[in-house]
Amino acid sequence: MGAAQNTAAPPGRRRAVPWVFLGLWIVVLALASPFAAKLADVQKDRPVDYLPASADSTEVAEIQDRLPGGEATELVLVYHRDGGLTVADRKTAGEQVAEIADAHKLVAEPKGVPSADGATLMYPVASTEPGQDEEKRDALVESVREVAGGEGGLSVDVGGSGALDTDAGEVYNSLGGPLLYTTAGVVALLLVLIYRSPFLWLVPLAVAGVADYFAMAVAYGLHQAFGTAVTGQSSGVMTILVFGAGTDYALLLVSRYREELRRIERPYDAMAAALRGCGPAVLASSGTVAAGLLCLLAADLNSSRGMGPLGTVGVLCALTMMLTLLPAILVLLGRRVFWPLVPAFGSAPKQRRSLFAAMGSSAGRRPLTVLAAGAVLLGALALGAFNLPGSLKQEDSFTKTPESVSAMETLAAAYPEQGTQPITVMTPAGRAGDALAEIRGTKGVDSAERGRTAEGWTEISVFASAPPESAGETATIEALRDGLDGSYVGGASAQQTDLRDTNARDRMIVVPLVLGAVLLILVALLRSLVAPLLLLAAVVAVWGAALGIAGLVLEPLFGFEGTDPGLGLLSFVFLVALGVDYGIFLMHRMREECLNGAEPGTAALTALRTTGGVIASAGLVLAATFAVLTNMPLVQLVELGFVIAVGVLLDTFLVRTYLVTSASVALGRKVWWPGPLSRPRAVAAAQEPEPVRVSAP
What we know:
Distance between the termini: 19 Å
Oligomer: single chain
């Protein structure tokens, strides 16, 4: 771009365009506001809502809903006194259970089951009053808890799958405010440190908040139009992506805008130049992230399949706002928004010693040594993944113990050799008798009772002889499924089994799709095969190392007794998509330097020196936003946030800085094979258009 007078727009246009964009977004947000407020109303967080329609446990829930009274909400009242229950305690328990039975429509008459040591008494109860209505379920649980109570050393807890779902729902519903405020606070702090301005940080932060609100409206529209699953996890991750990715795009744009203001007198023309300069790189990187996330549509798990579109909505809404609303506001505010470091027209930026220049030089002196040492380090860290704890049980999903989990812990200690929550079998009514006999003869079954019959189906409640979600109970569930033709086996434990199995299937499908989609985009963008493969290998190595670090700290440091079955898949998708995002910024600048005549080794070091500050700032912001999830009260969110935050930091300060740079230096022109840049400069110059330039902050 030439001098300011060559790029100047007519004065009327300069004044009008920012106001047009601002007014347009005010109208759009006013129209979207009613829909954004409804997103929480369509959020579903029951385990069965996460499962695919083909799962056995989903079939059971759907058949139960068609039975008289609908789906049953299962609860367990747990009465316990250290040293043994007294006669008065048992009388209190009986009276309270009778009061509950009188107040609510129960499936069967509750029967107390005493523990062997006489210290615990449990009453399994089930009601069809709520059906699939979560508000009615929560009201039932609250009503039961109001009745069930003890004093004088008698403890009473209400557990069971219904109480667990209620407690989980309360946690998910409470995430929105704390997650948003904490994320905004973290981003604000980092922007103040990066921009060193008391005003500038407010602009991208406010625009990110508006983008998040708009994303909520779009997500609600997706749910209404296509039935896209909305869960607490997916809506929380969408918010993280809006603030993380949106702030990254803002950093790149503001950095380039500051540079152009030194060269171009009028803010409107400087912003136009900045958008032409960094816009294509931002569009390409956001497109790569969106493509990777949309691969989750191939997942069979409802929660994962819904996270793909919601994550994409978050990224694209952030992109749209940062390329339209943010430029409009910055232009209207003028240069004074940068105070006290105002970029004066015709001035030169202050020259500072670059940390990334020093880091690049160290990588450039012995590239093969640096590359080998980094590969060994990442490989060693990845071995820690073998130390990851087993699958997360439902009662271990909370960082703070709710009443339902306390009940399950008491039951596990009091009934170590007995199932305490039912496995539900739905069998054709015509062969219910034979099925009941076969169930009672199945290894691992402690008892089985026939329940409701309607719509051609009979409900059978089965108690295993092993504790809930243990290997023994899982074996019993599998034996029932193998032995009962034409029947479906569900219930809380079966749902967890189906979650694990479906996640394993999804990994086999989605991981290759993500790699293939991202590779194709990188090949088209970089016009090379080696450079995209290098970037993909780097982000896959980061993912393995991040999981390895998680394996070393999740149980010893956080005290988590299991990992979410979806951790591997979701962390892979996010780290690959977001990691390649930064690789695009680096490789774009490398191509530019090569096109300007620099040798590949010099180009790699120059690219690191000039873009290292932007990438480091963006990486810190993104890692910090995902780290916010580690403060949430759900283990699966803490684990996901930790792995992604660690992975982004590894990618930003180790892989992108040292390994990709040293590999590019070592490969030389081969890094651009088979594209024109892999051939002599004279040929490449004749064939290559002017590239996109990403500037340093």
